[in-house]
Specification:
- By secondary structure, the chain is an alpha/beta fold.
- It is built from six helices and ten strands.
- Strands 1, 2, 3, 4, 5, 6, 9 and 10 form an eight-stranded mixed β-sheet that branches. The chain has a two-stranded antiparallel ribbon with strand order 7-8.
- The longest helix is centred in the last third of the chain and has 23 residues.
- The protein starts with a helix and ends in a 6-residue tail after the last helix.
Length: 232
C-alpha cells in the first residue's frame, strides 16, 4: 500500500469518531494529554456550532519574528504547496497581536483541496472564511496583517504548540482532527493502534448510555460493559 493510500485509509477509519474518542484511545496508549492541543477552537464555518469535523495529515507552517535573520527563508509561498487532503497547521510566535492567516489563504487552501486550517495564533477576515464554508480553527481573531512583525521560516517541519499549559509538538504527517470539542494531534506512528482500540471503546460507551437511560446507575452500567474494553 502506498503512503497516500495508507493515509486515506486511516482518515476513513477515523471519520466516524470524535476528538474525544480519539483522545481517550491515546490516553490508553499513555500519550500526553491524549493528544489534545489546548486553546484551539472552531471559528469557521460557524463559531463552535454545527457538525464540522476535519481530519487529515498535518502540513505545518512556522512563523518567526521578522527580526530573526538566522532562521531559514523558504522560497515561494507555503499556500501554493498544500497537498490534497492535508490540514494546514500555522504556528505563530506566542503573544503576537497580528493575525497570521486571512481570507485569501483559505481561498487558496480550499482550491488546493485542503481539509481545513488550524492556526496556533490569530486569524482575520472571518466572514471570508465563513462565506467559503471552509473549516478554520484558531486561538483568536485579529485585524492586522502579519508582515510587519513575522515571516515564514519553515514549511513542513516540526512545530511546538504555543502553550504554557503543555509541551506538545506537531510533526508533518501527524493526523490532526478538529471538531466542536477542540483539536487532537494523533502521531502517525500511533494511528493504527488507536484505530484498533476505538470500536470496542465506543461500543462499550453506547451500552453504558443505553443502560443508564433504562434506569441503571452509571456504576452498574460501567462495571458491566467497560470491563471487557480492548486494551493496548
Amino acid at each position: 500500500m502506498t503512503t497516500t493510500h495508507m493515509t486515506e485509509s486511516i482518515v476513513r477509519a477515523l471519520t466516524p469518531f470524535t476528538t474525544c474518542d480519539i483522545s481517550d484511545a491515546l490516553i490508553k496508549l499513555k500519550y500526553p494529554h491524549g493528544g489534545f492541543l489546548a486553546g484551539l477552537t472552531l471559528w469557521s464555518p460557524k463559531r463552535q456550532e454545527g457538525p464540522t469535523k476535519i481530519i487529515g495529515p498535518a502540513y505545518t507552517v512556522k512563523y518567526v519574528p521578522k527580526t530573526n535573520d538566522y532562521d531559514p527563508k523558504p522560497q515561494g509561498h507555503y499556500i501554493d504547496s498544500i497537498p490534497i487532503g492535508a490540514v494546514v497547521f500555522i504556528s505563530a510566535p506566542a503573544r503576537i497581536v497580528n493575525a497570521v492567516y486571512g481570507g485569501l489563504m483559505s481561498t487558496r487552501a480550499k482550491a488546493s483541496g485542503a481539509a481545513g486550517t488550524i492556526i496556533d495564533g490569530r486569524l482575520r477576515d472571518l466572514q471570508e472564511h465563513r462565506d467559503l464554508e471552509y473549516p478554520v480553527f484558531a486561538r483568536e481573531t485579529g485585524i492586522t496583517a502579519p508582515y510587519e512583525v513575522v515571516r515564514v521560516s519553515e514549511i513542513n517541519g516540526p512545530v511546538r504548540l504555543q502553550s504554557e499549559e503543555q509541551d506538545a509538538v506537531i510533526n508533518p504527517g501527524d493526523f490532526l482532527i478538529g471538531d466542536l470539542n477542540g483539536v487532537v494531534c494523533l502521531p502517525q506512528q500511533l494511528a493504527e493502534k488507536v484505530i484498533d482500540l476505538l470500536p470496542s471503546q465506543i461500543a462499550a460507551d453506547e451500552k453504558v448510555a443505553a443502560d443508564i437511560k433504562a434506569g441503571k446507575t452509571f456504576t452498574e452500567a460501567s462495571k458491566m460493559h467497560r470491563a471487557g474494553v480492548k486494551q493496548p
